[in-house]
Amino acid sequence: MQIVFHLSESFKALFQPQSRIVITGHYNPDGDAIGSALALYYILKQEIPNVQVIMPNPPPEFLSWLPGFSDMLIFNKNREEAKKKIAQADIIFSLDYNKPERVEFMKDDLLNSSAIKVMIDHHLEPGDFADHIFSFPGVSSTAELMLQFIREMDKLPAMNKDIATCLYTGIMTDTINFSVSGTTIETFAAAADLLMYGIDKNRIYNKTFNNYAFNRLKMTGYLLYQKLQRIPGTSAVLMIFTLKEMEQFDYRPGDHEGIVNMPLSVADVSISIIALERDGFVKLSLRSIGSDPKEDVNKLARSYFNGGGHQNASGGKLFIGIEKAEKRIIYALQDFFRKNK
After folding, report:
1. Fewer CB atoms inside 10 A, N or C side of the chain?
2. pLDDT in tens, 81-124
3. Residue 80 CA to chain centroid, in angstroms?
4. pLDDT at residue 255 above 80?
5. Distances (CA, A) of 78 to 19, 29, 58, 94
6. In the predicted structure, residue 257 carries a pLDDT above the cut 80
7. Which CATH superfamily includes the segment(s) 9-209?
8. Where are the domains of the chain?
9. d(CA 225, CA 245)
10. Which residues make Cβ contacts (< 8 Å) with residue 176, sequence separation at least 6?
11. What Cα–Cα distance (Å) separates residue 88 from each residue in 50, 84, 238, 253?
12. What is the pLDDT of residue 1?
């Protein structure tokens, strides 16, 4: 899919040295949200001093090696400072999310700000809360979009190794190392362009995928051996992870990333779900392989789990206890497979 933003001169003129700019990502920011935000941060900082990345909650520690990671402001840890910056912003970027609900408790501050809002995202069915909406659901990642945005903003001369590292990390993580169906010729071309800046792709891979705590490895074994269950009448599997179990393994934000994909290596498994107990709700991560209607986890999440995302990767929430959630997920999967034979 060819990406063209068609940026007008009046849009480019919004960015002045005196502008106050805030760059935001979604709740539980992943490599794509963080990589895109930090890349844009470094690009804009070269000409505009007042630029701040604000994430709703702490990003996963295994990405702490990324350039600019420590410069991010975490809303739920620095609430007053973050609120002030959002309220005073002239421009707010919404990266890697398509609806204000995705920033959770930052939503009201985002919507109440008088700033010009710019959405750059690749998820289906974008909301209309932004003044400028750049939505490309057929693209692998927001980081791939960000590279083209930088190009069309005439900022390629400002690119450097650190910025390329952030963007490559975003693309690599959202495509699971270039393995999902949304990885296109254009995605590989973008990655090749980024390699030209001298980035170390092997180091990026190892820092991202081979950089977990020891307890995370034990947690992975526990989930796969003790908690993985097949759902009768479907080709789906489910893992339930309770707060008590998270405490047992010293769970940290992002520790579950990647585990939900592992059961998809089994020949007759097409959908994998992990359900994480939270205070007051249950968070779901859904993954699938293939393009058959019964493998569309975006449709599954939207129909049953108050969520959505992509054909092969989506999220959802259930505002019930973990035991009831398990029963509802099993029912939803069986019903979904019956209706999509």
Report:
1. C
2. 999 999 999 999 999 999 999 999 999 999 999 999 999 999 98
3. 25
4. yes
5. 22, 16, 11, 19
6. yes
7. inorganic pyrophosphatase (n-terminal core) (3.90.1640.10)
8. 9-209, 215-339
9. 14
10. 258, 261
11. 11, 6, 44, 29
12. 62
Q: Using CA atoms, how far apart are residues 98 and 123, in angstroms rounded to an integer?
A: 6
pLDDT at 310 over 90: no
**For residue 166, what are the contacts with CB-CB under 8 A and spacing of at least 6?**
34, 35, 36, 38, 39, 42, 66, 67, 68, 143
C-alpha dist (Å) from residue 102 to 55, 174, 266, 283, 340: 11, 17, 32, 13, 28
Structurally, at CATH architecture level, domain 215-339 sits in: Roll (3.10)
Instruction: For residue 310, give the nearest of 112, 215, 175, 171 by alpha carbon.
Output: 175
What secondary structure does DSSP assign to 139-173, as a single string?
SS-HHHHHHHHHHHTT-GGG--HHHHHHHHHHHHH
pLDDT of residue 3: 83
% of the chain surpassing 70 pLDDT: 99
Among 144-148, 287-291, 312-316, which stretch is predicted with the lowest mean pLDDT? 287-291
Question: Using CA atoms, how far apart are residues 172 and 51, in angstroms rounded to an integer?
Answer: 25
Confidence at residue 341, expressed as pLDDT on a 0 to 100 scale? 80
Which of 174, 168, 170 is closest to 202 using CA atoms? 168
Q: Provide the residue type at 30 as one letter.
A: D
Give all strands (DSSP E) within the chain, no chain letters.
Answer: 21-24, 51-55, 73-74, 91-95, 116-121, 132-135, 229-230, 236-241, 271-278, 281-288, 308-309, 313-318
Question: The pTM is what?
Answer: 0.89
Chain centre to alpha carbon of residue 168: 14
